[in-house]
From TrEMBL:
Pfam families: DUF3435. The keyword Oxidoreductase does not apply. Residues 8-19 have a biased composition (Low complexity). This is C2H2 finger domain-containing protein. Residues 1-20 are annotated as: Disordered. Signal peptide: none annotated. Keywords: Membrane, Transmembrane, Transmembrane helix. InterPro entries: DUF3435. The chain crosses the membrane at residues 215-231.
Amino acid sequence: MTRRARHSAISYDSDASYSPENEFDDGGLFDKVEPFTRILQLFGGNVHPPEYYREAVEKFNETAYEAQDYSDGSLLLLDACDAQWRQYCEVLGCDPQKCLESVSESSSLRLLYNFFDWSLNQKVGKDGRKRRGTRKSSSLSTYWKVFRLVFERATGDKLDQKLNRRMHKVLRDLSKKHDLSDQRRANRCMTIEDLKEQIETTISTTKKSFRLGELRILAVLFLLLLAPAGARPTSILRLRFGDIRLALVKDPEGGPHNILIRFTLAFTKTYLGVKDAKTFPLPETLADPSLLLNPHIFLLGILFRHRAFRATSLNSPAQLANLDIHPEERELPLPLKDDLKTHIYSDGL
């Protein structure tokens, strides 16, 4: 039996397919790849060449980072103090900026003393409106702190510490001269009964009309969320549906499942950068003697009214009792619709 002859054609799937004799024309592809490889080696594996960073250092604008970041409320105080300083300089007939720059000099104490004395004597404000005036020495101290920020914003420097210490005596003398009280304002005490009465009034009153009936419910929910949030009204007013998490959780004692609400305040404080968001849990208290003090009642009413749950079949409170939790799980999330997450629940308040 004769041996089968080997096929003369070379298979290109084999390593033996290549030999110097059968090179093919690549159209200059490898000539183009090699310079690109050399460029990558030149950059050291980075995205931009060294010239990019040299030029960036030369053209960098530092002025955009020199100004201090202040909240909107702080900016209002600074602008009001700056406006008063300009009025005061107009009375003296001097340039406001030059006077402000001279505050750090040794002879500036008389300028500051008379500015605060002039400010305390002002009885009429903008557009001829009567000013409330300063009644507390603590308010005068706060005004001095605001002025220091105005000086720093205008000059880029902080006031001299020696001048700051001397101003404390100036503020004490001015407090005595204008008979300012040093008594702190007492905090108002509000009991649960007071809160219940206020909620009942908000729901039933006819002396106050609401553009939309739901706004009554939102006003009550606002009051109920202030306590767990540590009385941060601005953060509660900016609460969005996306900041709320609801879940059905198992009762550790084997009873019916409970509804757990978690809400996250993302706008607590923004001065000097965003702070860590705090999440507050609200366990279900539907069995409470007073349902007027239960935030679940009002929040669930709003969510069902807007059909906010992602599960389209979950459109009434009665259907919550039909939900069950997997035996191996502790809770069942109740996610809301994605298109509602950026909506602020207090719109219209």
